[in-house]
């Protein structure tokens, strides 16, 4: 089996009195696609946000490529990393948001060039070359000089994916990447994500697109109430779930 890329162990997270993650374990291997499904409020976004330390965990730990996220181990104890070390870790963890989050004042090309130059210290020339190659890969070679507001939602999300790839992430996290799109634009974004899956990009995708999960996922994880209720190959979790909660959820979304 391939190496473990993301490891989540016993993660708890509360907002005030509300316990949102109640002991989550998740293992993602290099080159695999994990699709997380589950009802609204079950903690899916919070889980993704703990994986790149946008949220601090209350208990448990997360590691990416063998490195503890947000912490280091010292004498058996976990010590928090400094903000600048967290930022450095985060450059290797790509995040694609529901609402794209492109820089509106930068062209498409500049959106892709900015972080590699500032965070990875790439030369402008090299960053531009990579950016053009990635835009070509997501089918937007012709839009390099456009501003995000000129593009459709589907195009903007493809730019966001290319921008995440420009940082050569060890893992790409997607939080409902097609939920903000008009239905006719969903397919073009899922096609890009499916292509990345075929080329071995390690990904964790939160989505309600069950057809996509069935086709692309190596593992489907069903979350409810802050825990992983069940996980396994799509054929098992989606077509033959063991838990009543999974069945009840699927009967609503399918
Ligand atoms: P999902 O992505 O599965 O819909 P979330 O992880 O977004 O679930 O949210 C889980 C629960 O945590 C929800 O009840 C939500 O209202 C709550 N929550 C999320 N973020 C915050 C926050 N920053 N402060 C307080 N409550 C939050
Ligand atoms: Mg969410």
Automatic annotation (TrEMBL):
- This protein's major location comes to membrane
* Keyword ATP-binding recorded: yes
Classify the protein's membrane topology as the record does: Peripheral membrane protein
Q: Does the keyword Mitochondrion apply?
A: no
SUPFAM superfamilies for the chain: P-loop containing nucleoside triphosphate hydrolases (SSF52540)
Domain of life per record:
Bacteria
Please list the residue ranges annotated as the ABC transporter domain.
6-250
Q: Which GO terms describe its molecular function?
A: ATP binding
Question: Any idea which UniProt keywords this protein has?
Answer: Amino-acid transport, ATP-binding, Cell membrane, Membrane, Nucleotide-binding, Transport
Which InterPro entries does the record match to this protein?
AAA+_ATPase, ABC_ATPase_HisP-typ, ABC_transporter-like_ATP-bd, ABC_transporter-like_CS, MetN_ABC_transporter-like, P-loop_NTPase
UniProt-annotated location(s): Cell membrane
Q: Which family does it belong to?
A: Belongs to the ABC transporter superfamily.
- What's the protein here called? Amino acid ABC transporter ATP-binding protein
Species of origin reads Streptomyces cinereospinus
């Amino acid at each position: 089996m391939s190496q473990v890329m993301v490891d989540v162990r016993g993660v708890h997270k509360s907002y005030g009195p509300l316990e949102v993650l109640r002991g989550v374990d998740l293992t993602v291997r290099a080159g695999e696609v994990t699709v997380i499904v589950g009802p609204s409020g079950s903690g899916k976004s919070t889980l993704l946000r703990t994986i790149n330390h946008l949220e601090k965990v209350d208990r448990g730990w997360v590691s990416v490529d063998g490195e503890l996220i947000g912490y280091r181990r010292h004498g058996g104890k976990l010590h928090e990393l400094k903000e600048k070390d967290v930022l450095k870790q985060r450059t290797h963890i790509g995040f694609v948001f529901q609402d794209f989050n492109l820089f509106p004042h930068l062209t498409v090309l500049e959106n892709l060039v900015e972080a590699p130059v500032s965070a990875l210290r790439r030369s402008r020339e090299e960053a531009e070359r990579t950016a053009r190659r990635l835009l070509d890969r997501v089918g937007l070679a012709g839009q390099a000089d456009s501003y995000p507001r000129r593009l459709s939602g589907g195009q903007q999300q493809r730019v966001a994916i290319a921008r995440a790839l420009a940082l050569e992430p060890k893992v790409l996290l997607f939080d409902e990447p097609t939920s903000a799109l008009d239905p006719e634009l969903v397919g073009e974004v899922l096609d890009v994500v499916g292509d990345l899956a075929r080329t071995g990009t390690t990904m964790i995708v939160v989505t309600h697109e069950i057809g996509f999960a069935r086709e692309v996922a190596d593992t489907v994880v069903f979350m409810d109430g802050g825990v992983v209720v069940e996980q396994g190959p799509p054929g098992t979790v989606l077509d033959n779930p063991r838990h009543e909660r999974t069945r009840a959820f699927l009967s609503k979304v399918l």
